[in-house]
Each structure stands twice: as C-alpha cells, then as structure tokens.
Amino acid sequence: MNNLIRQIEKAQPFFEKLSRNIYLRAIKDGFTAAMPVILFSSLFMLIANLPEVFGIYWSEATKLWIMKPYAYTMGIVGLLVASNTSKALTDSFNRDLPNKHKLNGNSISMGAIAGFLLLSVDQIENGFATAFMGTSGLITAFVAAILTVHVYKFFVTREIIISMPEEVPPNISQAFADIAPFAATISITLVVDFIVRSTFGTSFAEWLIGVFQPLFTASDGYFGLALIAGAMSFFWFIGIHGPSIVRPATSAVEYLNIDINIQTHLAGGRATKLLTDPARAFVMTFGGTGATFVVPYLFMFLSKSKRNKAVGKATFIPSSFGVNEPILFGAPIVLNPVFFIPFILAPIVNIWIFKMFVEVLGMTAFIFVLPWTIPGPIGIPIAAGFHPLSFVLAIVLLLVDALIYFPFFKVYDNQVYEDELAAEANDGEIKTIDALEENIVPTTPEIANDVIPAANITLDDKKHVLVLCAGGGTSGLLSNALNKASEKYSAPLEATAASYGSHNDILSDYDMVILAPQVASNYEIIKKDTDKLGIKLIKTKGQEYISLTNDPEKAIEFVLNKFKKNLSPID
C-alpha cells in the first residue's frame, strides 16, 4: 500500500496542473457565481411544493405566484452561467496579456449572452421560447462563453479593431474597439445556428444535448456513478480539491437532472434521475469528500488513543456540516495509506445504495437543491421531499459508512495508541487530552520559529485578510479564528472568508490573502494579481492550516508576524 501511495504522489504534479486548467476553472467559477441564484430560487420551490407532503395545498394562483422567482432565476440560469463563465475565462487570459491587449470583460459578457441566445432560443410569435435558457442550456452556455472569449482575444491581440484618436475619451474608444469582436461573435454563432437548424431541424442547444445524451445516461449507471464519486475522493486523497476537477464535467448534468426531477415531480410522477447536486452533496460526499461524516465520531467514541480521541472531539462539528478538512488533515486521512481504501470506497458504495433505493425500492430521487452545509442526515430527507424511504437511506448510509471505515480506523488507532504507549514509556510523561486537543497536529517550523507574541505586535493601520478555499466553508474556520483573536488582543485586523473564484472583484480591498490547502495549487495564478496590487499572498499546508484554525492565538501570531516582519510566502 505504501508503494501505491508513493506512485500516486508522483502523479500529483500532473493532477495539480489539471486542476489549474483555465477552462475547468472558468466553468467551475461560472457555476460558483450562480450558486446564490440557484439556492435562492430553490427556496421558492420548497415553499411551493414541500407543504404538499403534509397535506397542505396552495391554490393554483398562489402556487404560480410563489414559483415566479424560480422561473425568473433558474429559468435563465444558462444565460447567467454564460455571462459568469466568460468573465472568469476573460480574467484568466487578462493575467498574461499586456495592458494594451486587455480584454473588456463587460463587452465579452454581453457577447456571450447574445451568442448563447442565438444558439439556444427558438423564435415564437411575439417573442422567443425559454425551454433552453435554464439548465437545459448549460452546455451551450459553456460553448458560447469560451467561443466569445477566444473571438475577442483573436481580434484584440491582433489589433483588428476600430481605433479612435487619442483625444477621444477612453470609454468611447473602448466601445468602438469592441464593435469588431462583438460583431464577429454574433456572426459566428448565427452561422452555427443556421447550419445546425438546416441540418438537424433543431436548435444548437437541443442538438448538443442529444449528442451528449449517451454520456448523461451513462452517468446514472453504476460505473458512471462510481467513476465520478471515486475520482473526487481520489484527487482529494492526494491533496487536490477533487470537485474542482470533476464538477466542471458533471455540473451541467447535475442541474439538468435536478430540473428533470422537479418537472417530473410537478407533473405527478416519480423523480428517477440520480446524478444531481443533492446526490453529490449528501450521498457521494456524505459529510465531505470521502463520505467522512462518521469518521470523527469513530475517533471520538471508539479510540483507545488519546490523540485520536482529541481529533474526533475537535473535528466532529465542522465535519457534520460538510467541512471535513479538519479531519482530513488532522487525523490525517489525506495521503494516509491506512485510509486509502475506505476513502475511495465509501462514496462509491453510498451512491450505489442510493441507486438501489430509487430503482429497486421505489424511493423518489432528489427534487430540491439545498446548501451543501446542511448535515447529510437532514439534507437527504428534505431534498427527497420527505419520502419515507429517504429517512431509511440516511440511517443506512450512516451504518454502512461506519462499517466501511471501522476496520481501517481500528488499525490506525492501534498504531497511534502503541506509539503513545512507547512515548510514555520513554519519557514517563502522560499528556492530558486537553493538551492533545490544543495541538492536534505538529506545528510547522514556519509558524513556531522566531515568532513574536501577538500581544507584542502593533500595526500602523487596520489590516484586512482574505482567506480563500474551494467552497467558503474551510476558509471560514481560519477567518473566525483570526477575528476571535483580533478581538481578544484588540488587534487592528479583520478577516473574511470566501471561495476561490469569487475573489476577483474584491481582491483589491485586502492586504493579505491566505490560501487554504485545497486551493494552494492556484498560488502561481493568483500571485500575478496580488503582486500587481501589492498584496501579501500566503499558501498553507494541510496540518499547518488545521493547527492555525484550532488555535486563534497561534493564527493571529502567524498573520501579524507576516505583516510585521514581511516574511516570504510559505512554500
């Protein structure tokens, strides 16, 4: 097993490079920016339909009124994602382009929207149809966004634009400069629309869904589901945020399927599409990637090792809400050979069990999208509309995951326990559980050496720190620790948590950016932006990051020392 882990580690640079692919990141960031819309609109879907489970029915007029926000948000989510994705890709290109060849993100966004409409919308009398403006048009949204950015890049970098005299105000000059690439975008998408409609008699969006339909069908099969669930866990096991690689390829299917499930449910049928956002959040990643919901509880209640028991006590709360980095790096599970098999196996078994519940036992698949931070045992019944079998499913997943992890946990716990006994025999000292809990993982030299106590550091002015992770949950752990300590020491420092990809518009408001381990591979990318703005950038490692989140005093000492001593970023 150790040899296998070493071989996997050798491949880590390749997968890190893959995770930094600008197109994958643009698609992921396009979805991330649209999440408030998706979650907010889903709230109205819940209000309109969930009461029916308890025998409460709205009038048709009232239900139509409640559903209006859903129709006007999720109903155009394809258009929103086209705009967001084009903006994210534009930002990636602009990092490497000289100032005179910078792409205009606003114009590109409008071009992507117009191109998306041309490729996905059918004309009808006095208007146009909206069937493919929502989740059904997501793949087309990616095509329109990527095409638009490349067209603009081709024209702008080759200066095939309308140039105005220097006396003309910059905003007017920019408007004229964007005419040629915008016109080219519209012309290309119009030609594509004409060719597809002439050849296949349908819109590009509908034709494209037909092309990908075999993959959509395969994604709901045992092999497809296992591949998706296993891949996310595999990448996380080697320290790379798995969903950042996998979800750009599956997000369109997830939201298309949830829309199909919703429409089926509203029509009185039983939803059967399996690969959806709730299935990923509450089944595949039950308690976080690797389906680790039960792991902190095993550590807390069944450990002989004092250290492991302390790890469980310190990590069960965030893990219950889907933030499992503390247990991943605190145990550790990441790159720990003992946990390789259950970390990959549990998500696969979970989604297979869910598939059997839906296809064999007749449970409804998920019909509501919920925030991923809702604990899995609660999210499963709500997302399934409180179908009776959904409660059984939640209990079964808890038991099965516990059975999968338990033997591997016992092996690891015995190892740690024996090490503790040996250490006690050597130094005759028994550490208390409280002491272990305060220092679950070793402090790295970068933090421990030559540190000035927080109480002895004063800053000239208030500093703002931005902590970035993949989804905003893990970054919240460190930002909360920093804010707690800054209040204790009256330090002029304020920390904010955010997800990587949503930071571009707010970066200039901060004096320091800290990258959580899951997004540390993006260090070189974001460094181009922070260097231009004169912002300090720090990337962290797994155990180091968790030790900071567990000790607010250590966290603020770490940050204040970076400001005061102007140390170089951690490698």
How is the secondary structure organized here?
Elements: H1 2-10, H2 12-19, H3 22-49, H4 60-71, H5 77-94, H6 105-120, E1 123-124, E2 127-128, H7 138-157, H8 170-177, H9 179-200, H10 204-219, H11 222-237, H12 242-266, H13 277-284, H14 295-302, H15 306-320, H16 325-330, H17 340-359, H18 376-383, H19 388-427, H20 433-438, H21 445-448, E3 463-469, H22 473-488, E4 493-499, E5 512-515, H23 523-533, E6 536-539, H24 542-550, H25 552-565
Parallel strand pairs: 3-4, 3-5, 5-6
Antiparallel strand pairs: 1-2
Helix pairs in contact: 3-4, 3-5, 3-12, 5-6, 5-7, 6-7, 6-9, 7-9, 11-12, 11-17, 13-17, 13-18, 14-15, 17-19, 18-19, 22-24, 22-25, 24-25
Protein described:
The protein has 571 residues and is mainly alpha-helical. It is built from 25 helices and 6 strands. Strands 4-3-5-6 form a 4-stranded parallel β-sheet, sandwiched between helices. A two-stranded antiparallel ribbon has the order 1-2. Strand 1 (123-124) and strand 2 (127-128) form a beta hairpin. The two termini are 28 Å apart.
Name the helicity range.
55-70%
Based on Cα principal axes, name the global outline: globular
Gyration radius, in Å:
26 Å
Number of H- or I-type helical stretches:
25
Question: Which percent band covers the strand fraction?
Answer: under 5%
Topology, number of strands = 6
Enumerate the spans where pLDDT stays under 50 for 5 or more consecutive residues.
Answer: 429-449, 567-571
Could you give a short account of the major beta sheet? 4 strands, parallel
